[in-house]
Amino acid sequence: MLVEVRYDSGSFVLNVADRVGEQVSKVLPFKTVLNVWKEEVYFETPLALGEDFTPVTLIEPGRLYYWPPGRGFCVFYGVSQPYSEVYEIGEYVGVMFDLRGIEDGVEAEVSNHKPSGEFADIVERLRGLGYLCATPSYGGEKMVTASKTVDGFRIGFNVYVEEYGYHVECEPLYEFSNRFPTLPATLRLKKAVTQMSDTVRLDLNEDGWVTLTAFVKGLRDLDKTVNTLEHVYVEVLKTLLAGKI
Question: Where do runs of H (alpha helix) occur along the chain?
Fold first, then answer.
């Protein structure tokens, strides 16, 4: 089941696993406070899960975890690890980078999430491609966010609907700098992306991080663009991990 966490400047969506969905639905909606620790956002819930889960101390970014001591839902979006044992109970939907803008101590409300009807065509197409989709708010505006795993790599992107088409922006790769060695490495990566596609571009997001973007003029071209984005994103990650840039 999808649950939305709404706070003052936006919201994010979590996909709760079926095995705990019924328990979660019984406590919705509820108010809480968002806490930020290292590269993690967590919040207390009224949920008291039993011990019929496998505890872990090594997590995967983008997954949803339950922390028993604080009855907390936890989402990790970077390299940091949990303070103590947690249970995996679901996943975060969309671009993890968006969690970086949340401030510690912000009040929030957690409730059921149903994707907005105005984006139904986009959501249907992306679900057809195997994506988990939601329509959270960012800066007061609704958008479509999606994510799935391809070849062991998590892919997340946002779709911004404009009058003139659709802007697709991927999970950022790293923070940009005009200094050595980041600049020459970025230029080499840009050339590599250009050789792979004339649709997907190496770009910057509004926070100055290197990412992949694409512009789609019509909805009929979205499927093809997303398939290309998948391929390029995975190849870029493989290249970066291999240290070939």
Answer: 18-27, 120-128, 182-196, 222-241
